[in-house]
# Entry
Amino acid sequence: MSDIVLETRGLTKRYGGVHALEDADFILRAGEHVAVVGDNGAGKSTFVRQVTAVEQKTSGQIFFDGREVEFADPLAAREAGIETVFQTLALADDLDVPSNLFLGRELFKWRFGPFSWLDRKAMRDRTLEALKTTAVKIPNVDNPIRNMSGGQRQCVSIARTAAFASKLVIMDEPTAALGVQETAQVETIIRGLKERGVPLILISHNLRQVFDLVDRIVVFRRGRIVASLRKDETDGNDIVSYITGVKGGADAVDA
Amino acid sequence: MTQTTHGLGGLKYDPTKRTRAPEWNVFLALVIIILIFEVLNRLNGSSFLFNMRDNMPGLLNKQRLDIMILQVAITGIIAIGVTQVIILGGIDLSSGSLVGATAMIVMSFAQTALVNGNPNPKAVLGDWAMDLPVIVPIVVGMGCGILAGVVNGLLIAYTRIPPFIATLGMMVTARGVARWWSNGQPVSFPTESYGHLSNGDILGTLTFGLLSWPGQNPAVVFVVLAILFHILMTRTVYGKRSYAIGSNEAAARMSGINVDRHKVLVYTVAGCLAAVAAILLTSKNLTAQAGMGVMYELDAIAMAVIGGISLSGGRGSILGTVLGAMIFSTIISGFTSIRLDAYYQEMVKGAIIVAAVVLDQWRQRQRARG
# Structure
């Protein structure tokens, strides 16, 4: 079973009495792109927050890259190879594009603790390269992010994830705030990841997008996984039935 | 070719239309302010910058410039540290009091045993602390700065109390230390070599007499520190992290930057710079008093704000603060030159600080809209 990248067994998260995530069994295989869909409050983001250790799970197990993991914080998850685009953008507004792309993993000419000399040219060159492969349009990468549109900022955030993607990419509603053109750019980036064989978990409300991009769709409802369907075995109506609870066993319990 | 594009098929971008560095505006303001005071002085038949006396040599008004430069240098050194703290998204109210406390302690290790053949009347510590090599008070002073800075940093980074409160506590505590140290008595009569720290001619020594600027060592130190920290803030990961944390602390944390450790480092640097100012100030004045450095923290913050450092963090530069310091000192000297009453000076000073912050807020709104 070495082709399993990420597996969760009985993953559970409770906020006080609220069962935000209940007994989630999830498997992601090498190179696979999986969409996570569900209504607001269905537990999608909660699921991602447990996997990336933004929050600590109540119970359950997470296996990543062939072994059980207990990430202490998001940084540990990232160092293990999980790159995440969060709903709230993790960008520093006053820094330019290269600085944001290389935030926390700068390139150096020489190292001397906190006074290490930055290799600004190399970072700039690699930024332009990364933007080229992702087809993101930024008029001037030397401007602070502050001066850019929401779409451009989102693209920088996603370009950063894609550029450093190693073992797994997670995107939490990456196109929620974007226009048509910018959404298309993000989708191009996602297709690029597919070609490179980088596995992806995509949280999205956009079913058209989901059917365009991923191999498999996992439906969350009221904190539980109620369906895991291959794209070619299902259609939009079917997915909506699971999302709204017309189909799926979970409803019998809490109707 | 004036148009270039970055990225694929990107938008047109004209590099010539790139927004001017904000420091240019500050510099322009400095020039205008100098001109205004020059004109106001000329109306009275005198001059702000130039030497108008026939019985004195030189083109420039050396006396006034010397005072201005000294003023810029001492408070400016503090402002370099405060600037870094503000860019980090914090604030340091303790630097003025820290100057006071450090001054008292340092001076006690710099005293000489005999004054005109009599025992030092202001001796604080025992005979063992008399006529020590000059390196001892310097090390002790830097130790004070490091200690206060580390405490500030640890409080802010690990108890998560607002920097305003943590450094306010340090401000009151350090002033208390300054008063308690010698029961409010001034500490005076340092060794000759200690007096030389500020009053000697370090530039002459370093350049083997090629250049010379006797009595202005604080200014030399200020320029060196300003260049050093400008480079650190723009070229090294130290600066990059400071800007990143001040800009978006959560993002910096998420990106793997050790935010807490970096905060301690920056507050420690600020403490050290306040200690440097204290050493130079006591060496210049050959005495230390418990009230030294009162309001310096606000002057330093004002210099930073005038120099375009955003109080919300993430924006500004050391160069901006240097220019801000020059504006600040020019205004003070300018008011004196037109014989404006000291009370009015304070009031106008306050108004300028508020105006600078209002301007900063206004610029931010403009940017958000644009």
